[in-house]
Structure prediction request, 857 residues.
Amino acid sequence: MLFVVANPLKYGEAMFAINTKPKLPVRILLVFILLPGLCSVAQTTIIKGKVVDASTFEPLAYANVFFKGTQLGTTTDFEGNFAIVSDQIGDSLTVSLLGYEQTSKAVQRGSEQILNYSLYPSSLSLSEVIITPGENPAHIIMRKVWANSAANNIDKLAQYSVDAYTKTSVYLRQLRKEGSSEKAGGSGVFARHAILPEEGSDAALPVYMSETSSRNYYLRSPEREKVLVEASNTNSLIDADAAIVTQLIQKSSKFNFYENNIRLLERNFVSPLSSSGLFYYKYYLNDSLYIDDNYCYELRVIPRRSEDLAFNGTIWITASGFALKRLMLEVGANVNFNFVDRIRIMQDLEAVGDGAWMPVKSRFMADAVNIFVSSYVEYSNFDSKDYPLGFYDRELEVSEGAGEKDEKEWEKLRPRQLDSHDLATLKGIEELQEIGSVKFLSSLVNMSIKAYYNFGDFELGPWLLLYNHNKVEGHRFRLGFRTNPGFSQKWIASGYLAYGTDDEKLKYEANIERFLSRENWTKLGLQYRDDVERLGAKDEFYSKSSLSSFASSFGGTDKLISTRLLRGWFETDVFRGFTQKIVFLNKWQTPASPDLHFAYFRDRERTSPTSDLTISELNFTSVYQPKATFIIDKNNRFPVSFNNAPTFSASYTYGFKGLLNSDFEYHKASVGVEQNILLGSLGSLSYNLSMKKVFSPLPYPLLNVFHANESWFRTSNTFNMMSYGEYVADQSAELFITFRQDGFILDKIPLIKKLNWRSVATAALAYGSFDEKKNGYYDAESNKQGILLRELPGGTPSTAFKTLDADSPYLEVSYGIENILRFFRIEVYHRLTQLQPDAEGNKLRTTAIKLSAQFRF
Prediction:
């Protein structure tokens, strides 16, 4: 029996006022009447607390909090908080959540107390399934979800905008000593500065935390997104300017589960709300309940096959309108991810404009072996105002002073204030930033990722190119540098010095760039270089890959040429996704390698043979990336495609004769397209197709020399079984195809599956032609001027080259395994065509094993 009053003392006084001198039996009777009520008030128990993941500190929403053997209980909110006030309690309070070990704690009756829980993950399993006659009720619900999907999908709105608050944290776990449960380094920095939610949880070092307050704008067609950053604050051990981490996490953790596929770390996962969901999921109706005045069905979703790219967890569907109200989904270790053991996604949705539902709270967590990332986003102030298309040209705008907000301003911007765990994270990062050994280690980690060591306003590197070896230079040593925004927001300086022990020559490059506008990435640049380069290798100016330059620096025939060049360029985004670059180049080159022999007559009388060439050219290159997102890293940016849209390119080059001693006038053109297509559980397929044409007669070093790679290191979009300068064409087509099966094949083999190896196959096809009659440098009868020498003046035969035709293209294929030790890739290459011996009668190698390294999830 419960007897609850607002103020028992006053109530008792009123009862006694009935008779100021009651007899003893009446007093006893009053005691018996009031005693239960007084006892119930005295024994009222108030319990508050928070439930988090013991391994990742992630707040656990929707966890069940209850007293065993009673009907009394509640659930945690989106931040993992709960509160219970009652006088009917058990001896212990239990917390349970699907995918976690159940935990109980003793309760002190009749007092106010705080009980925090840290739950450890467990295997996800369906504890009980009740089979009833007739159709599965969950299937009936899902069919109504699909029927109403278009009406509930936020993407049906032509435009909308919302305020967004994003908080991202990264933590580093303590390493365990191999073969022991004891954790390493317990008495060092980790023991002094690690944080943990409660005793018994896994401790971790905070290494990164950021907050961003922005206004986000979305346009359905053409698909556009714009972010106006109003405030930003970053605390990091990795890099003083770690904005790239926030950008990547924000872009990769925005999910719309009404879409059939959810892109997650370079994979396409099937959404539980996909119209083909019955082929990939088992659905079970668990419960029905009210959530925010919405009566909802709780559905359990389980992948039909463990190898499918599908989620495991729970979704809540409204009974009115059959909209997605809430979800809690997880990807476990059964998916062949690199470094990532577990991913959890939680969303709370609300109805906004025109009946559409959108997430108002979202949390993304990725848990790796020794590091975990958590990102929380809260949306508010929905608006469907229309903006012109030009409004979306600038994808990212940062308000002036966005990074200079003080704590009082942040208190107004945050939808809720930082909790004790957030404050401990910030404090931990600040303390670690003052430790010298931590600073040095952070710099090494940053260098391993970006290839440069940061010294503040400038950086030294890339470390991959510090050393290589070739026949001309012998041992080559190179040290480069570049400035960062700490030096200047508008000016960029970079370059390198190199020295060879055999030729004893100093080589160098100097670059200076000026930002005219960071908003549309408008720059002017000037470069001077005096160095050697390989005939048929990619120019570093265009490849921008130190790994590609490193791979081409070892092995092969070393067909090197000495070059001196002056280059100036202008680049800008004409509109979103469309980049235009104009490059002027003046270049002198001459053979430098003992393997390369070349000479031609520069005059009509053919009296002055020469081996050097000078060109002056103007190049126009256009690149269209319709749906790419650009991630900005200090003075650099790179495109990240979160969809399957292709990238198109076109280029035209005009060569000036007589300008800065240029020897030739010519026209060149090229077009290309490349794309990466995600195939779900089958993996991914990428292709790169390009076509080139030279419209003027030129000596062969200036024609289309197919990019080759003779080293033991594999490079992408090159012919890895072709020799440097082996094939030349005046018109050509090249196709590179890579098919990554990820774990689709090797995961079926029990012993191999544990290694997380992934199979990969490639094909490279080259078609080309060469018209000697139109190119007077190779036909003495059709053109007397500028004949290419077949022999040098000393009698040495000129280096021969080969041509292709429609009947005999070049084809090579490979197959191999990647993700060896998480980074390495080994492939066996086979050259299938053009197998005839070279001009000297030497047999060509038709098979090779090549190695490469890459970072992929």
Observations:
- The first helix runs from residue 8 to 16.
- Residues 1-24, 26-42, 177-187 have pLDDT under 50 and may be disordered.
- The CA atoms of residues 343 and 366 lie 4 Å apart.
